Amino acid sequence: MSNSAESTSSRPLRVAIVGAGPAGVYAADILTKSNEVKDGDFQVSIDLFEAYPAPYGLIRYGVAPDHPRIKGIVNALHKVLDRGDIRFLGNVTYGRDLTLHDFRAFYDAVIFSTGAIKDADLDIPGIGLEGSFGGADFVSWYDGHPDVPRDWPLEAKEIAVIGNGNVALDVARMLVKHADELLVTEIPDNVYRALKDSPVTDVHVFGRRGPAQVKFTPLELRELSHAKDVDIVLYPEDFEFDEASDEAIRSNNQIRTMVNTLTNWLVEEHAEA
Questions:
Q1: Is this model's pTM higher than 0.85 or not?
Q2: What structural domains does the chain harbor?
Q3: Which residues lie below 8 Å from residue 32, measured CB to CB, with a gap of 6+?
């Protein structure tokens, strides 16, 4: 890909990585670990480009503040960049500051690891109405993303969360959790104040399929169950499993764990009624 006349046999292979989130940092780490040292010189030279001043992407701006274990991944990523064999270049936006033509002129290979930075639009009526927001935007807000406004219109008492993955449960938990419990985290002051004054009383989580097809993990499920003063409401009709669901429960330990947990909650809920 390089236009340089200099032979790659006489210099290190030059690699540009666009995006300094987990994928970009780990890609750089893998390349450096496969790096052979010849005559005291590295055979791969890596430049890591990032649009923002600081690296770590999704871990910095896409994980709920009460996930210290997951945010701890930053420590591992920091160790990779702190070694000194990878050059980090922040505040560089691809397509504005540098183009693919520029990269081809100075690098032998380019890796794009920019991630999914935008919400996928739901093709349903009313998706663009006032009060309808994308999960990524809300997560970016409570994580203090520099491109997101400091204010968020938390005015509704009842909120619908469409989806049943980890982000959906993170959003639901952040909406119902006591704001004071988040003070031990890195939650931005403006987010704490907004959640403290939030009128939200009910959060409804909608999924296309049943408990055997949920995409969240046991960690998010347990964290939601530990939220103070939160009642989890389940419906018996959602636990009428078809043959495919039964097979998934039998063959997958994680699915079995989550379905058993949800089923036990359902039984306890109706026993107390």
A1: no
A2: 8-112 (3.40.50.720), 135-272 (3.50.50.60)
A3: 42, 44, 46, 83, 85, 86
Interacting residues of 24 by C-beta distance below 8 A, sequence separation 6+: 17, 18, 48, 50, 55, 57, 111, 113
pLDDT digit string (tens) for 173-230?
999 999 999 999 889 999 999 999 999 999 999 998 899 999 998 888 888 888 888 8
What does DSSP say about strands 109-112 and 41-42: parallel, antiparallel, or unpaired? unpaired
